[in-house]
Amino acid sequence: MSLWTAADAAKATGGTLQGDWSVNGVSIDTRTLAPGDLFVALKAARDGHDFVAQALEKGAGAAMVTHVPDGVAQDAPLLIVPDVLEALGALGRAGRARMKGKVVAVTGSVGKTSTKEMLRIVCEHRHRTHAAEASYNNHWGVPLTLARMPADTELAVIEIGMSNPGEISPLSMMARPHVAMITTVAAVHLEAFEDVAGIAREKAAIFDGLEPGGVAVLNGDLETTPILLEAARARAAKTLTFGEKPGSHHRLTGLRLGDETTIVEARAWRTPVLFKIGAPGRHFALNALGVLAVAHVLGLDRAMAVADLGRWTPPAGRGMRETLLLDRLDEKLSFELIDDAFNANPTSMAAALEVLAAAQPRDNVGRHAHGRRVAVLGEMLELGPDEEEMHLGLASLPSMASLDVIHCVGERMQVLYEALPEAKRGRFARSAGKLADRAARLVDAGDVILVKGSKASRVSLVVDALRKLGHPATK
């Protein structure tokens, strides 16, 4: 069964058909396009119309365009529309309209993608589940996810993000969720907002699109929780909270961070629960409680849901942990890498450093007698006028006392570097590339090394360089 017939796509978008075709997928990138996809010629850094001929050569079933591009046959299979982005939105709304199952939408300053993946794992064993790829959560990512959704989907998990005011509400109204979840509210994108309260109000706009009888699930521990609750009660038929504070419906009561797992003790609707998730992190544990709250709303079996959470692991760049061998012949000569190089703000930095502080290095295996907890911290971006204070504030985190060496990347991180005790100071570099060139000097056998920073700080270059030093350990 095809995903879209030509007639259905034309009806959804109001476009003009060229040829009679059907497609099995929707793509915006020729590099990942599969044969039979509808290629959507969006204008971004490059104009997608420049790649239509290539897409058709690779087997695209059709292309959605505003005109017949140069080098494309006049009788090529096309859907011609006035505006490609608007047409993608119309296709997404049509995909949502024909789907008769339940939709969960997730937003938050931190943890959207990991929570979305937890929900995918919890849902997919018992229902035909569709979820966003990667971090497809913006003005093109949400409609693309909906346009890709098979008509027989039973549960969909849609991630919704923002960088400016007014972005979340229209995306939520496009997704029309039955359950909307907010992971947390933190100092992210403050350059576009007056304060964190403004960010909270924008996140709370996810409730604008709730279906009648819809349920709000939100973090009950935040200073801005009252803002979220006010918005939820105005739009939702029911509101559930998760967190550590008394009064949350799903409440964390105990936590043990291991090297590769977190053991979570909690109460869910007055019922004690004990389970593990496949990564260390208090933030992961809290979001897992939010996932259990969503599972409860959806009527999923709690025992099966907690078992599924044990199979979840974070993707690369979001806290993924790996062992790298410095010598293939001697497994003792290895180090642990925590790759958290995708994004950073004060909240996620604190969570990542807590994980590093709980890690267990190995002694007497490297050049240093004692294995070390090493942090490579890239600057945090889009924090607004208080960015210097927020970078400096990392120095007072309790977890800093347990770290041995801190390397800093970027001009904004210089205030932290200068505030560190001299014994903990590693290297300071204005660019990640310069630190990546010295990767071999950053780590030793027995160490646990965390790399954390905003994506634009490019500390992923340090991750790549560290991976090149060693070989993945076999489990």
TrEMBL record:
ATP binds at G108, S109, V110, G111, K112, T113, S114. Residues 106-295 form the Mur ligase central domain. Residues 23-93 form the Mur ligase N-terminal catalytic domain. Keywords: ATP-binding, Cell cycle, Cell division, Cell shape, Cell wall biogenesis/degradation, Cytoplasm, Ligase, Nucleotide-binding, Peptidoglycan synthesis. It is found in: Cytoplasm. HAMAP family: MurF (MF_02019). GO terms for biological process: cell division; cell wall organization; peptidoglycan biosynthetic process; regulation of cell shape. Its main location: cytoplasm. One of its GO terms (cellular component) is cytoplasm. It catalyses: D-alanyl-D-alanine + UDP-N-acetyl-alpha-D-muramoyl-L-alanyl-gamma-D-glutamyl-meso-2,6-diaminopimelate + ATP = UDP-N-acetyl-alpha-D-muramoyl-L-alanyl-gamma-D-glutamyl-meso-2,6-diaminopimeloyl-D-alanyl-D-alanine + ADP + phosphate + H(+). Belongs to the MurCDEF family. MurF subfamily. Pathway: Cell wall biogenesis; peptidoglycan biosynthesis. This is UDP-N-acetylmuramoyl-tripeptide--D-alanyl-D-alanine ligase. Gene3D superfamilies: Mur ligase, C-terminal domain (3.90.190.20), Mur-like, catalytic domain (3.40.1190.10), MurE/MurF, N-terminal domain (3.40.1390.10). One of its GO terms (molecular function) is ATP binding. Its EC number is 6.3.2.10. Residues 334-454 form the Mur ligase C-terminal domain. It is an enzyme of class 6 (ligase). The lineage of its organism: Bacteria, Pseudomonadati, Pseudomonadota, Alphaproteobacteria, Rhodobacterales. Involved in cell wall formation. Catalyzes the final step in the synthesis of UDP-N-acetylmuramoyl-pentapeptide, the precursor of murein. It comes from Pseudooceanicola nanhaiensis.
